[in-house]
TrEMBL record:
Name recorded for this polypeptide: Ribosomal protein S18 acetylase RimI
Keyword Ribosomal protein: yes
Organism: Dyadobacter koreensis
Keywords: Ribonucleoprotein, Ribosomal protein
Keyword Zinc carried by entry: no
Amino acid sequence: MHIRKAIDQDRHEIWEIFTAVIQTGDTYVFAPDTPKEDLDKYWFAANMETYVLEENGEILGTYVIKPNQVDLGSHIANGSYMVHPNAQGRGIGNLLCEHSLAEAKRFGFKGMQFNIVVSTNKFAIKLWKKHGFEIIGTIPGGFEHLELGFVDAHIMFRKL
């Protein structure tokens, strides 16, 4: 497996991952019917770096890293990660997280923050904690889960 910066030719495979992940409505704020045209603003905006993890020429995961806020809050990174549902359970999320932390340090960020980690997403919470993230706050009913209704959302942070 190899992680590299995304190129324009990766957009179709990234879209396949993106749309498969958001369809469940249980981990991301994006509506399940988000149109393909919106991928640019959510995964290829000018203020973010986009990466893919590929194996044998197939993209299995992707992440973006960007400043969590503008100007005086831009020293804290924010990341979003997606693994193709068919490739889950193979350690790809772990590799993406490790890579993103190294990149965030390389870019000079002082910390990394996740603004909405859905409380029912136990796998993600366990993974982020493994990499030194802590829950620093909880938003009661901060996420509208498509099956469970309103559930809590955590803010997670770690210093770099």
